[in-house]
Design goal:
Elements (H helix, E strand, L loop, with lengths): L4 E5 L17 E5 L1 H8 L6 E4 L6 H10 L3 E3 L8 H12 L3 E5 L6 H16 L3 E5 L3 E6 L2 E5 L6 E6 L3 E7 L5 E7 L8 E2 L4 E8 L2 E6 L2
Parallel strand pairs: 1-2, 1-5, 2-3, 3-4, 5-6
Antiparallel strand pairs: 6-7, 7-14, 8-13, 9-12, 9-14, 10-11, 10-13
């Protein structure tokens, strides 16, 4: 069976609004304690994965009683739970991946999760990280974003030594602009047409679409 979209819910800052972003036909993965969170919000994960060191015994019973597919790992390991989930997703070869709960108060985890998007980029799988205030993409080719009222600000930030970027449909347009890593010229732009086109001719950028 072809899987078009996979939702990963990992154990960062979780919000009930994420439930509305999960569709009926999505394949859902609950990472560590997020598996329990999904069940409590009436969504049964297709896969629960992690070392489950953040779950209580009672919560783990709930996960085992509801999830048919559980992959458990030792707490001492070379990969984060989210990275383990990403590896499982790549095996399934979906067209799109959306990750919730990948941001939060742990900046180390947030940064690591953003860079995990590179694994999807390498496999040509369209992927994003979403929370209440942001949508995050990693781009090395083209990204078209529709103008939406709730997320007006768009930032393009180099993660390679330099990038060459063109922007169309934005308040500040660029044509094969060279931006070096550490320069902030791409921060806080806005889409002024029906959609904005970001084309990366060289390098890789993080695109952050923000609410405020």
């Amino acid at each position: 069976m072809e899987i078009k979209r996979i939702i990963i819910v990992t154990n960062g800052r979780l919000d009930e609004s994420f439930v509305g972003g999960i569709q009926k036909n999505d394949y859902v993965i609950g990472v560590d304690g997020a598996a329990y969170w999904l069940i409590k919000n009436n969504i049964i994960p297709d896969l629960a994965i992690g070392d489950f060191d953040s779950t209580t015994e009672k919560e783990m019973v709930v996960i085992k009683n509801n999830c048919k597919n559980i992959k458990t790992f030792e707490a001492k390991k070379d990969f984060t739970d989210t990275e383990l989930a990403v590896a499982e997703v790549i095996k399934l070869k979906p067209k799109e991946v959306v990750i919730y709960g990948a941001t939060g108060t742990r900046m180390d985890h947030t940064l690591a999760n953003i860079f995990l998007l590179e694994k999807f980029l390498e496999k040509s799988i369209f992927a994003s990280i979403r929370d209440k205030n942001n949508e995050i993409y990693l781009v090395d080719n083209k990204l078209i974003l529709k103008k939406v009222k709730d997320f007006p600000f768009v930032s393009v930030i180099p993660i390679t030594d330099l990038v060459i970027v063109s922007l169309k449909g934005f308040e500040y347009e660029l044509d094969h602009k060279i931006i070096k890593r550490g320069e902030a010229i791409g921060v806080s732009n806005e889409i002024v047409e029906e959609s904005g086109e970001i084309v990366v001719q060289k390098g890789k950028v993080v695109v952050v679409r923000s609410k405020d």
